[in-house]
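User: Predict the full complex structure for these chains.
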Amino acid sequence: MSAAAQSNALILHEDDNVAVVVHPVRTGEAVVVKAEKLLTAAEDIDVGHKIALRPIASGGTVYRYGEPIVEATQAIEAGAWVHVHNTRPIPGDLQA
Amino acid sequence: MRFQGYPRENGTVGVRNHLLVLSSVACANGVVEAIGRELPGVVPVTHGYGCGYGPEDFRVSHRVLTGLVNHPNVGAALIIGLGCEVMKAEFLAAGVEGKPVEALVVQESGGSQATTEKGLAIARKLSEQLEKVERVPVPVSELVVGLQCGGSDALSGVTANPAVGAAADRFVDAGATVILAEITEMIGTAHILKRRGATPEIGAEIEQLVNDHHAYVRAQLGDLAGMVIAPGNVDGGLSSITEKSLGAITKGGTTPLQEVIEYGERPLKRGLVIMNTPGYDIDSMAGIAAGGAQIMLFTTGRGSVAGFPAVPVVKISSNSRTFQNMPGDMDVNAGAVVDEGKTIDEVGQEIFDLALEVAAGERTCAERNRSAPFNYLKQGPSF
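Assistant: Here is the predicted structure of the two-chain assembly.
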């Protein structure tokens, strides 16, 4: 398997709009899921962290495991890191 | 689908045929330990309780300890009591059905050394009986599989837990029962679990259980309750309690939730059930085992080495580093999803296949290491 085809992210459910990074991804690097290059990372992202697979509008829901986990507090572009700096718990869910 | 196991009189099947030597009260632990040292083939179980607790803890203690003696993996039992305790050895022995059980009381048997000698004679006799029993084909649908995590890391919810979920779905498809536990790890997902109930009533029951537990955690821990999502979780990439807890409940797979059961209670339904246990893995496993789980699937990231008495625990590492750094402790490497290009479903199949081999007698790492800590959840104070 060539280095370029080595997967560095996982999509845990078909409805998800984020992937989880399993090997550190650098800005401009290809995000590879199941040996398929899906998009380019807009920033450095660490293992265990999430990357947006498509644009998420401000107030839009982030899905992981096919379930809503947080909502965006600003517009998030495809390839961007998705975490507490640009999301918040969904109102009504528990706050951290 | 069948495996080679031990059918029991009450219709359950064992995956082991152990002689359990149990203390009814902590004061009898010395005798139990002495018997265990002399006869390494028995499963000695000691604990810190047995005396001086209120009615609720008496009920829980009785349920857990008789649950262990009645466990399908236990072919015979010897219970050692002191004599003046609340949880008497004879009382525990009376709750045992369909298997040889004997009780000894230290104060009535001539003290520690004489009780140990008498216990060894009984244990040798019972062991001989157990050795004669052969495995026969039994249905996989009689398996109760417990799910547990401990020492999780950032990949637990990405590799090991989803892979166990894929295995859990296979067990449910085969007609078996799967126990998802650790209500502490479900905080923030009550609204999601509610939708997964097999009926609206079961969904409502699960929602209530998780919300009640959250209130309990808040009442007990106050400001520390926020620690259910620790700074380390956020550093690891988790953005909300809901996201963290989803990573834990993904161990249960995708089938509907059939029942909610109390700590240490036996499931009445088949399929996926939820048991009310805490996040602390040793206490949680005690409830799951008392509920009759013959085998447990345990995910870890940092590297938990804990097994459980009389119950094989399959250890599944979330990452290859822990798997390689702790040789002889981990049974399955779910880190292969990250490093070897395996899919979550492939690792799920691997876990399912290994669990069936373990059910048929293959020993797990924790069994080989004799790693079998025991403790159970006591709610109230000691008196």
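Chain A has a mean pLDDT of 92.
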